[in-house]
Amino acid sequence: MSLSMYTASVPVFRQILGSLAAILEKAESHADLKKIEPDALLKARLFPDMFPLLRQVQVATDFAKGTVARLGGIEVPRYEDAETDFAGLRERIAKTLAFIDSVPREAVEAGEEREITVGSGDKQRQFSSGQTYLAHYALPHFYFHATTAYAILRHNGVEIGKRDFIGSF
């Protein structure tokens, strides 16, 4: 039995984005309880050359919506990246979840053999199939940014663990 493109993407994005939204809620409560300025967490990085928490969440949602759109053969929705607080990040996640739920399963499945191009100019990457794009590019990038967001919060004392990251399915 093979794993469908839809099953390998949409439910995975839903699960991890749902847990990311819950983790952000815990982070906001942690900041309130400990009297920490929310920006201290939102702008926190694991290392100076890495994106801060805010950008990690934005990029994770970009990979989720972009992947589903590309597999579905539709235009990738553009977000302004204007979030400045936890509520804004949770709204972005909710908007992303609504978008990926709006793409028909059949459209995502049809992306298995579709050639996928991402980026432009020197950063342009081409994939011979949607399957290659999903398995070797989109999912690893998505997990990297979601995991890094988790790690930033954990490193900064937010009481979260593996169950929080994995969430429910």
UniProtKB/TrEMBL annotation:
Protein name per the record: DUF1993 domain-containing protein
Annotated InterPro entries: DinB/YfiT-like (IPR034660), DUF1993 (IPR018531)
Residues in the signal sequence: none
Coiled coil regions, renumbered to chain: none
Domain of life, source organism: Bacteria
Organism of this sequence: Massilia norwichensis
